[in-house]
Amino acid sequence: MSHNDWISDSLGTSPIDREKPTQTITVRKNDQLPIVPEEQFDQTQRNVMLAAETAEMAMLELASLASDAQNPRHYEALTELIKATVNANRELLEMRKLDAEIKQKQDRAEPEVGKTVNNNLFVGSSSDLLKALRDKESE
Questions:
Q1: Residue 82 and residue 88: Cα distance in Å, rounded?
Q2: pTM (2 decimals)?
Q3: What's the mean per-residue pLDDT of the chain?
Q4: DSSP string of the chain?
Q5: Cα–Cα–Cα angle for 73, 78, 82, nearest 5°?
Q6: Helix axis angle, 37-69 relative to 72-109, nearest 10°?
Q7: Could you state, in order of their start, the residue ranges of all structural domains in the chain?
Q8: CATH says 37-110 is which class?
Q9: 32-60 per-position pLDDT tens digit
């Protein structure tokens, strides 16, 4: 009989078996190499995913506690946790969408090798254009 069993007995509840998290968290110090934007995206996504996973474990435990205690405050806390988890998942989806949009813009910005360019526009005077063409012919 552990020291928590007498509390559970007096309250008429059963003790909650707590499992230790199996995921390890790596902390990156500020004095290490600077984070490039792509790494920032990945790190932010990992942080949000970790928060969502942690919230899921907390939700299960809080749901059990609320069910056992039948206390309105526990259900209110559970509702707030569910809202926070949904918001974290929404942020994760928005980050992934933003990442895809940025990568798509980068792909459009990089010219492909051997790509034919039509309808170029020269900005300058006609004498500048003639001079550029003569320089090109002399090469």
A1: 10
A2: 0.45
A3: 76
A4: --TTHHHHHHHT-PPPPPPPP--------TTSSPPPHHHHHHHHHHHHHHHHHHHHHHHHHHHHHHHHH--HHHHHHHHHHHHHHHHHHHHHHHHHHHHHHHHHHHHHHSPPTT----S----S-HHHHHHHHHHHHH-
A5: 150
A6: 160
A7: 37-110
A8: mainly alpha
A9: 544 456 777 778 778 888 888 888 888 88
User: 48-101, pLDDT tens digit by residue?
Assistant: 888 888 888 888 888 888 888 888 888 888 888 888 888 888 888 888 888 888
Residue type, 42: D
Matching residue, tokens 């990089």: 110
